[in-house]
Amino acid sequence: MDMALLKRLIYCIINLIKNNMKSALITGITGQDGAYLAKDLISKGYKVYGTVRRSSTPKLGRLSLLGIQTKIDFIPLEITEFSNVFYTIKDIKPDLIFNLAAQTFVEVSFKHPILTTEINYIGTLNLLEAIKITGVKSKMYQASTSEMYGEVLSKPQNEKTPFNPRSPYAVSKAAAHYLVSNYREAYGIEASTGILFNHESEIRGREFVTRKISYQLAEIINGRDIPIQLGNLNSVRDWGYAPDFVKAMYLIINHKPDDFVVSTNKTTTVRDFFKLCAVNAGLKPEFVGDGINEKCYDRISSKIICEVNKKYYRPSDVDYLQGDYSKINKELGWSPDNDIQVIAEKMVRFDLDVLAGKVNNFGI
Ligand code: GDP
324 by DSSP, 3-state: which? Predict the structure, then answer.
């Protein structure tokens, strides 16, 4: 067989395989969860489409760090524009749609409540409408959040616990959550939600408290003198590991449409997470004082390594979250693999390696 013919044959076979691959569209692919999920889906043989906002230069650092940047088909998409969402869904007809695009930072939602609502609520509505009108057979996963429980009405929280949101972010997510169940009931759309409790990792954004702590402690180990400034140290979270949680997303979307809590059912205060990280960084942390005057000393160097700063208090905060994940455990066999000790250790190790120049974090 001549060489040109052989090349054409190989090209045709590759295209045939590509066209028969299952496909997944991930909105918010450049975020922590989007990146881990894309990696999992690629390893399962999916063709992955990732949406990036038209208006901004995409931040592809996380995808580069995970070594998958070149394996994704990027689609420019502004999720708040219905026609843009409509034609994207109509053209791609993905088997799976993961809606992870969101303004996810609670503090910012107090400053930009309208933007937060447009992205988180209207964006979800646009996707559901596009699925409804085009009639595509896509299954959809909606990223719901434990923040919807807000000032919690019972402990621990499960799928039946009423929502009591305490920020524009939480309100927008609760509204989007109700939309998903409404479109499921009203139009039979195969849409599910995962109510994910806080989930962290080495590639978490540095504005979230866990990564703020791990990264800034690594800076202190590298000679920084200014103590880390934190807000509410008494806040209690149920922190899990993001790579464990994206596995739950895949199980949820492939199950019959429903809602599932994804969590660890273990609680830790911000103060205790700080201590865990500081010990992992080789320090001897001790907190003294109360309220705004509370400080943490490193008993090895006698330096103050953390102070409370009012600037980081929220107009209204969520003080306690603890998720009961027994439904997903019973029905889908999911449970978390990594506990808070392991998470703190991994995050501190990564940030120490980054600052020592041993790892390229691509600016994450
Ligand atoms: P959230 O649960 O989605 O708001 O995740 P965050 O990581 O942003 O915040 C978790 C908790 O840590 C909240 O109760 C915050 O009020 C509290 N917290 C205390 N100090 C800080 C801080 O300096 N930054 C952030 N982001 N949160 C802080």
Answer: coil
Gap between the Cα atoms of 252 and 332, Å rounded: 8
Return the HEC string of 107-135: HHHHHCHHHHHHHHHHHHHHHHHHHHHHC
Mutate to test the pocket of ligand 1, among 200, 270, 272, 294 (most ligand atoms within 8 A of CB): 270
- What are the pocket residues of ligand 1 if the criterion is a CB atom closer than 6 Å to any ligand atom? 106, 147, 198, 207-210, 212, 230-232, 235, 237, 270, 312, 314, 317-318
Is 0.85 surpassed by the pTM of this model?
Answer: yes
pLDDT 10s digits, 115-158:
999 999 999 999 999 999 999 999 999 999 999 999 999 999 99
Write out 245-301 in H/E/C secondary structure: HHHHHHHHHCCCCCEEEECCCCCEEHHHHHHHHHHHCCCCEEEECCHHHCEEEECCC
